[in-house]
Amino acid sequence: MGVLSWTRRGVLAAGTAMALSLGMQAEAQTPPGVLIVGQIAEPKALDPAAVTAVNDFRILMNVYDGLVRYKSGTLEVEPALATGWEISEDGTEYTFTLREGVSFHDGSPFNAEAVVFNFERMLNEDHPYHNTGPFPLAFFFSAVESVEAVDDLTVKFTLNAPYAPFLSNLAYPTGLIVSPAAVEQYGADFGRNPSGTGPFKFAEWRSNEAVVVEANPEYWDGAPGLQAVVFRPITDANTRTAEMLAGGIDMMVEVPPVALSEFQGDAFQIFEQAGPHVWFLILNAKEGPFADKRVRQAANYAINKSALVDDVLEGTAEVAAGPTPPAFAWAYNEELEPYPYDPEKAKELIAEAGAEGAELTFYVTEGGSGMLDPIAMGTAIQADLNAVGFDTKIETYEWNTFLGEVNPGLEGKADMAEMAWMTNDPDTLPFLALRTDAWPDKGGFNSGYYSNSEVDTLLEEARVATDQDKRAELYKEMQSIVQEDAPWVFVANWKQNAVTSDRVEGFELQPSFFLLLDDVVKN
Amino acid sequence: MGSYILKRLVSAIPVLLGITVIVFAIMALIPGDPATAILGSYATPENVEKLNRDLGLDKPAVQRYFIWLFNMMQGDFGRSFSLNRPVLDEVLDRFGATLVLAGTSFVLCSLIGVAAGVVSAARQYGFADKAITFVVLLGISIPSFFLGMMMILIFAVQLRWFPASGMWPIYGDRNLLVLLDHLLMPALALAVVATGVVARLSRSAMLEVLRQDYIRTARAKGVPERGVIWRHALRAAMVSIIPVLGIQAGFVLSGAVYIEMVFQWPGVGRMLVDAILKRDILLVQGGVVFVAACYVGFNIVVDVAQSLLDPRIKT
Fold first, then answer.
1. Assigned domain for A58 exists
2. Chain-centre distance of CA A357, in angstroms?
3. For residue B267, what is the nearest residue in chain A, using CA coordinates?
4. Strands A488-501 and A268-274, how do they pair?
């Protein structure tokens, strides 16, 4: 008996003692002045020209500046590293005056040569540092024919044709300015040794644990209120929520709708902000029942969008009225009302078109950027469509596979597909996904083959108009035509959310979905 | 003995080559390509083609396989394009973390499992046996990821005894105590099922041995019961327990994938899941080959250990 019972008791005692001694020291709180942010993934790189994910942008926007940026709370452009600019009469020459006395974190000066270096690196295949890519979003600047340094603080961009979204593309992370000296020093490893001009400078990247940035006291726009920010990748949403509840992080983004209720109460603050996001169904306008406009409108009437945003998405989105999200306030047509939920009207339209009992193949994805809760939403939509007499069949694909099926076009495969876009300019989505020249065989994303020459003309004109009021008018007209034509079912505009602990002050979510931390304080 | 080990090593070569073919073929056959994953909504056919060319993915598959294999034999696993760093650096970093987790779990499940099995067998049908059998059944039945989530909820969120996730604290010293603090929950969650399996098989292996004539002889000679069980019986039973431990080592290594996801442990399992979702071909291939090589190596060690314990096995 002796040894056995001794062992048993010993194990229990030792185990308890260890658990207690370890448990005691786990209480440590996160230090004041240091903000710990729960991110959704490990960043790919901290080189703004090389990355594409919003997750990476959240770090980059705090380390770098662009020539221009979005005015806080809007999607309108204001000066940043450039103090002003002039646009030539024909809209093909942009001349920027640069801010004086700005240095990169590595000490090298910011000047016109640095700007030229940045764009040459991305766009010119013969540039000695073009091999630090690939640069997947370089096509944002494909209109740029040449960039030249006029003098030390003046830089001139020449475009091959007028291109109105140019300025807002410069405000996008792809247009952030990196230190040429750091690129020259680190080459392909620049993405792990970044240097910019932003409010925080890079301190440390511990793979799979954290990216640490520290305050830049010499920031041209005023030193930030925090000493440091730590970005922690926590890919699992449940673990991220648990870590926030347990006090291991001070801020988390992309809170799952079902977890929001956990954060009610004084210990946490919840933030919400509608962004330039639209969630829609692409309808195959080339063949099958949706080739008839009345059936496409019927689908818009048949789907109960309020129920989708309130019940499935728990209020984390708003019902979309048309193809352009309201976050583009200046270009948004306030007069548009969303299609009401009206199954009777839908049935009438279907009867008129003789499409009763039509079979529909519906592509649904399992996840993916901006797709919210695609399976639950797809199932609810299927039920609504079947209720007005369709026979809807769902096919589900993993996100990358899904894109591989949908982007080449739905012809011969499906009648409808889920899709969502987040963009930085009202031009981007309709130009890439609604024009006749954007059909998949021409390299665009118009996977449902919508075609209306009036819409084509409006979009072409808006792209070359340099006057914002003129552009706004064209976009508004486009929206009402597209809403009437119903090439898509317009479903939802997502509200991005974030939660912070009560120790965090001065935080605001931006409609751009970027995370700007220079005014944040943590007690 | 030397020739036995050599024979086992040589026989591992075709296994490893087979693994490279399988993992390469799977990555080549699954739908979706890295360019689509990188570009997301912006994946026009034109952009995809250009990016694939930049990534060197426009060559025929067979050619890519041999380039990859040849480079790997020279120690060059290529560069991960989702993390922008050499595959081997990443895999080694991550594998270290996985070894700490899986190794701890393995030690826990071996010690606790064998001890529980021995006690159970020594007290067959007694209270201890019934209690252990019940707990073991419970352990085997609970999926480890669920157990992990419950542990986080209770011990990290409610009681705040342990950190919810990660391997190291974001701030402060890195010492053994801090590591244990982060390690205890994931290692236990991972060890539970394996412990149950080891305990059950140890119990039956011990019962088998305890029925043998030489045990009766030992008892008749007056060897104390403690000595009979721990020295005579366990030693003989280990011959059938060790292969089970070998299998459990593989089990904790693969089970680590779930636990690493739940606890955000920076290990190779989580790396592979992320890499697959991002279609980071070279990282998936390199990671799988590396882990498989380690597993094959471990199996050789187990076989050799077994043949040392029982010379009859060496053939």
1. yes
2. 38
3. A208
4. antiparallel
SS (H, E, C) A125-143: CCCCCHHHCCCCCHHHHCC
Q: Which residues pair with A13 in a beta bridge?
A: none
**Same-domain pairing of A161 and A172:** yes
Q: Which residues of A touch B184 (CB under 8 A)?
A: 18-19, 22
d(CA A374, CA A367): 6
Whether residues A74 and A172 share a domain: the answer is: yes
Please name which of B261, B281, B273 lies closest in space to residue B32, comparing C-alpha atoms: B281
Domain range for residue A209? 1-63+198-250+503-523
Condensed to tens digits (0 to 9), the pLDDT of residues B2-44 reads 788 888 888 889 999 999 999 999 988 887 778 877 777 677 7
Q: Which two tokens stand for residue A169?
A: 């593309």
Q: Kindly state whether residues A105 and A115 are assigned to the same domain.
A: yes
Residue pLDDT, tens place only, B53-95:
877 788 888 888 999 999 988 888 888 887 778 899 889 988 9
A140 and A55 both lie in a single domain: no
CATH number for the domain spanning A101: value is 3.90.76.10
Residue B27 contacts residue B281 (beta carbons within 8 Å): yes
Same domain, A332 and A410: yes
DSSP state of A176: B
Q: Alpha helix (H) ranges present in chain B?
A: 2-29, 34-39, 45-54, 61-73, 87-122, 127-141, 144-151, 176-210, 213-221, 225-227, 234-263, 268-277, 281-309
Name all domains of chain B by residue range, CATH numbers in brackets: 2-87 (no CATH), 91-309 (1.10.3720.10)
| Residue of B225, B264, B265, B279 to mutate for A, most A C-beta atoms under 10 A | B264
Same domain membership, residue A513 and residue A379: no
The answer on A94 and A53 residing in a single domain is no
Q: Do the Cβ atoms of B242 and B304 come closer than 8 Å?
A: no
Q: Are A239 and B162 inside 8 Å of each other by CB?
A: no
Domain co-membership, A46 together with A2: yes
Tokens of B264: 């955000």
Instruction: Tell me: ipTM over 0.85.
Output: no
Contacts of A284 (CB under 8 A, 6+ apart): A290, A291, A410, A411, A414, A415, A416, A448, A449
Contact A247 B160 (CB under 8 A): yes
- The closest CB to that of B170, out of A36, A192, A422, belongs to A36
pTM above 0.90, yes or no: no
Q: Select from A23, A133, A208 the Cβ nearest to the Cβ of B162.
A: A23
CATH code: domain of residue A397: 3.10.105.10
Instruction: Answer whether the bond into residue A134 is a cis peptide, omega within 30°.
Output: yes
Q: Residue A512: which CATH number?
A: 3.40.190.10
Residue A134 forms contact with B (CB below 8 Å): yes
Answer yes or no: do B33 and A7 touch at CB < 8 A.
Answer: no
Domain count, chain A: 3
CB A435 within 8 A of CB A323: no
Chain A positions touching B178 (Cβ under 8 A) are 25
Query: Would you say residue A189 lies in a domain?
Result: no
Whether A269 is in a domain gets the answer no
